[in-house]
Amino acid sequence: TLKYLTAENPPKPPAPDTPRDTPRETPRERHPDLTIFVSNLSYSTTEDDLRECFGNVGTVADVRLVKKGNKSHGYGYIEFSSRAEVLAALNLDRVPINDRPVSLASARRSPRKVEKEFKYATVHEAHKIFVSNLL
Predict the structure, then answer these.
(1) b/e map of 77-89 (b: 16 or more CB within 10 Å)?
(2) pTM exceeding 0.70
(3) 95: number of Cβ within 10 Å
(4) Rounded distance, CA 75 to CA 67, Å?
């Protein structure tokens, strides 16, 4: 049933801004130079598995598996505390974790290449023909 606004049924005031029960976490600063990208992981691989495997290389500062809900997408990121540890970890490329050879790469993003836009030639092109209405 629809409720109409009347003197007997005034609109409810908006809820006051109440502080949250738990404070929001401040996002951790990420260091792409100290992070590696790990792919071809088994869906059953956990963050603890990666910490255990790469803990032998150096100090693992952070492990992030990419998930949707509780299901892993099979890749993630591992952050180390020094660049030397990152280089040592990259030498473990194709080492099996949970019976799958994982691929490792530096997470540092390469500068995006600017794609050239298609432009019509501004000069006469004698050896080109235009074809239309092919359907």
Answers:
(1) bbbbeeeebbeeb
(2) no
(3) 13
(4) 9
